[in-house]
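Example record

The entry below shows one chain as it appears in the dataset: sequence first, then structure tokens.
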Amino acid sequence: MPKKIAIIGAGIAGLSAGCYARMNGYEAEIFESHSQPGGLCTSWKRGDYTFDGSIHWLTGSSPADSFYELWEELGAIQQTSIVDHEIFQEYRDIDGREFMIHSDIDKLEKHMLELSPGDSEHIKLLCGLAWKFTRFNFPQTKAYELFNILDTLKMIWKFMPFAKQFNYCSNLTVGEFANRFRDPLLKEALPRIFGGPEISMVALVVTLALFHKKAGGYPMGGSLEFAKKIEKRFIDLGGVIHYGETAEKILTEEGLAKGIRLKGGKEILADYVISASDLRRTLYDLLDGRFINPLHEELLNRVPVFPTSVQVSFGVRMILSQQSEALTSAYKMPESFTIGNEAHQWLGEHNYSYDPGMAPAGCSVVISFFRVNDFGYWERLYADKAAYKAEKKKILETVAGQFEKIYPGFRSCIEASDVATPMTYVRYTGTWKGSYMSWVLVSKNARKFQVIPKQVPGLDNFWLAGMWVMAPGGVPTGAKTGRDVIELICRKDKKRFRVAKP
């Protein structure tokens, strides 16, 4: 009789774990508190409009990147149209100057040199690093915990040509690198690419390389449709998903995970338990703080998480003409404006005109994200529901007014709108501090947390999956950790780990 795995959460990590569990002959049941799959990888409807909250670009959207094979195994990429943007991001200053981050590295270098010849040294360094990483693929085929000496030697050999550049970027943040530039637009725009200056330069050069290879495209249909394809793969493999079922406790007995208790008291027995839920909730609520790895505790107490955001979305009865082929644009406004308790001067625009399924004919969806540094403000505000609702209304009016300056008539054409705050992320998924990524790892902590434990001391037959155990998080790491955990379970059961494509 096959062993049974109970999986908490139907986000990308939980769905991935479920798919690979079925590929390897395990019974697999997923328990999800929401009514649909995806977790943070989601979209939602407002009238005839679809607002997307996750995938702007997908790592591994083509065979040029190693993640593509994983998406194939999960059935997520087949029969999916991919849009590759010629320009990744565009920044427009108040004086009309434009900085366009071309997907093609040669075009990017030429454009930056024309924009700021005095920064040629730093421009050539940036583009040279990105070119270097177009030839590197991170291996996705085996869980790092299972690497033997031969695997490690192969990894070192493969990585050796990139070691110098990787070490250089690992010891430098995007903000530190941007401060070397003379040009004020470049100095200000570069740290905004990933929402803040604290992000490692590794993220920047690897992403530029990804776009150059056309392996960071957008899957048509958006995030929820992407998640539903993996859900279908899981169900087709014989898996079972229970929606509207919230796990309240992980059942343990004599150092073994035995199953889960659902809200309402029902107990589900299983041979193995995988939590693909929020790390902090798993450790301190589902396990009552009884099984804590010091590394997990240090992450939660000392390592910063990716800043959360406020997402403002509009469906408008007008065609918003894109002035470039950029995936996203950002405009520096003449005067600052307030979102929550923080001042902003840049207005981001994610115009979904390239995906006609997001809006009715003749209409458009436009989304803007605003970084939040003070999560506590939103946590306190949420306690006063009237004040929280009033703030969301104020934000809608503020952002609509900013878009009116770019697109005259914008206000009068709004047919649908929505504000997602940090507390929306918490309410919807339980994610800690409203973060939609995970840890910000820089030189002082990156090596220590290179491999985050997927198990906890004193408890066998239990595993962790999801973005919190593979920084910096996101959709690809969720899928990878789900795969890895099943490979670890197969090793425990002395079974050959098998994969299959639909």
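Notes for this example: The longest helix spans residues 385-406. Residues 308-432 form one domain.
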